[in-house]
Amino acid sequence: MSKIKSKKEEAPLAGKPVAGLDATEAAAELARLAAEIAHHDSLYYQKDAPEVSDAAYDALRKRNEAIEARFPDLVRADSPSLKVGAAPVEAFGKVVHRVPMLSLGNVFDEEGVRDFLDRIRRFLGLDQDAELAFTAEPKIDGLSITLRYEGGRLVQAATRGDGYEGENVTANVRTIADIPHEIAAKDFPDPFEVRGEIYMSRSAFQKLNDAQAARGDRLFANPRNAAAGSLRQLDPTITASRPLAFFAYGWGEAPAPPADTQWGAYRAMKKWGFPLNPLAERTTSVEDMLKTYRDIESDRASLDYDIDGIVYKLDRLDLQERLGFVSRSPRFAIAHKFPAEQATTVLNDIEIQVGRTGALTPVAKLEPVTVGGVVVQNATLHNEDYIAGIGATARACARAAISASATRSSCSGPATSSRKCSTWVLDKRPKESKRFKFPTHCPSCGSLAVREVDEKTGKRDVVCRCTGGLICPAQRVERLKHFVSRNAFDIEGLGEKRIQELYDDNIIKSPPDIFTLEEKDKEKDPDEQLAKREGWGALSAQKLFAAIQARRAVKLDRFIYALGIRHVGEITGRLLARRYGTAETFVKAMRAAADDRSGEAFAELDNIEGIGPAVAVAIADFFAEPHNVTVVDELLKKVKPQELEAVDHASPVSGKTVVFTGTLERMTRSEAKARAERLGAKVAGSVSKNTDYVVAGPGAGSKLKNAKDLGVNVLTEDEWLALIE
Ligand code: IVH
User: Fold this and answer.
1) Into which CATH architecture does domain 556-636 fall?
2) What is the architecture of the domain spanning 472-550?
3) Of 135, 216, 318, 649, which sits with the fewest C-beta atoms within 10 Å of its C-beta?
4) How far apart are alpha carbons 702 and 693 in whole angstroms?
5) Pocket lining: 335 vs ligand 1, CB cutoff 6 Å
6) 139 among known catalytic residues
7) pLDDT, tens only, 111-129
8) Which is the closest atom of ligand 1 to the Cα of 138?
9) Global confidence as pTM
């Protein structure tokens, strides 16, 4: 245990109840606590050598908070409560993954599996009947983890986090019996990162919940939540008392792949002492893959751990390497999910929600029902077609009985959550049910709601949208909520409720207002300041200002994502940030793309690997709207988006612009493009003076001629491969 110096003699007020402190004493105590907490933070975070127990540390912070709550005017500028990110859950420390921990695409039926195989063959330029081997194994419903070994010793364990940065949970992982601390085998690579899933068996979960119940403690909803809760304990002795288990299924950083095939790698990892799932199979045909799926599905109920599908991985690692990744998922692996669990409940009402892009989404208000351990009381009905489709007879009747379904894998949220609603049970519909009519006007601003027609296909969009644009309060509020949300600006203390409140009171109408909040607040009459508002206080106002201040140096990908451009999610935000580097270059290029859809800027945008034409058009449309440009310009006067760390600097083609033309013989065009992008090159569709290389195959025409005219370096496919390899 800790060698805690008794602070009592040095700090005579330390034991005095908060209620008994006068203002002078409170000020002295706050000063002492600020210094003491800063001292422990430094020992914990920088030196990894804490001097006090977590409980003792928490007690100091709680005392600090209690005094501040009683004496809000005495909150110090260096108060520990104002330090963003110093909350106990942050105590784990961050780990940047050397190899990102990405996720898997999903398919739900045989056709999806066949499409997956077709896509692989097409990408690799193989015949459609070429034989390919795959591993097929259960998808464990737990938490992914990466275990780093150096010199054969476990030195670090980290959660997945956002895939690029996770939490350091080494101490907790060391308590898991399945995970070796040391590996003596001579052929064990150094360094080696093993990846896999931590889970809690169903029997252990049952026991844990029985014990929780006996103590009157809160029950865990399912084994996955129990595993997550156990792994994220600040006290490793608690983790040690919760039986967690582990299955390995992959690797991260390694000097070389552990074998030539996935199956060979599994054998190697097993030999080194890692638990591998005994149900994994090596399959050589789609029929074989589907048979494994059915076999494991039929055994699912008898397993002592939760699984939610089967993962197929292309066996040959050289082909995996060639296939690479699209957005966050590998092209060489996929999850074939089991059908979702179902439960029946009653539909009480339907509400229409207006999203940030104006989409009107019907949300079913359900009689709460438990599915897979989670209470479901809202279910999105997706769109009008969905209701009409099933509603040809049901028409989403008020108080009709419906089935709500939930998948376990998404059950980590709070006790109640929105879930997809599936089939309607019509014969249980009460007589007094009312027919649901989809609104013709936006419930927020009253503008007409329309279903747009796609110019190319002539089809009506499935989504009904409010035409109010920026006059629609619901859209504006939703955009603001998105702007401050966790994966965007991540402004702590500015949750959905507060955004709504500050919007309604004309304090924050658009994103730039967030960054003038403090300045404008100071100019106000003290009685009208945030600190005096109901539900606020000096502390929460100061905390919010500090959080906003800290986010002025937001990363560029988050900045782009935060703008809320239609179709631009986190991945696209990252792709754009990587391609354009700085906010200024990005905005300049997007304005040029918006001004001229057949110009070079638009072509460059459209050509980015991972950005399709619909996304490029949506981005150009966003920048064609003067109001959006004004908002972006205003924002850039107040925030300084930071460039992302560079990718693969060592690559000779990093930062170079490449054009492929003619027929490639060693790989398909998509593969060549994906590989070049991975090495940090920009792949363009047309040749200009900015082009660094033109890779020309047989049949190359005008682009090759252009390249020669402009004096651009022309390479054969083999020369290109020699350059990048
Ligand atoms: S392979 C590039 N294999 O599923 C990602 N993942 O949706 C490769 N999971 O984050 C992952 N069982 O936590 C793989 N046998 C298995 C798995 C598995 C569970 C989880 C994993 C991953 C998530 C992807």
Assistant:
1) Orthogonal Bundle (1.10)
2) Orthogonal Bundle (1.10)
3) 216
4) 15
5) yes
6) yes
7) 999 999 999 999 999 998 8
8) 15
9) 0.56
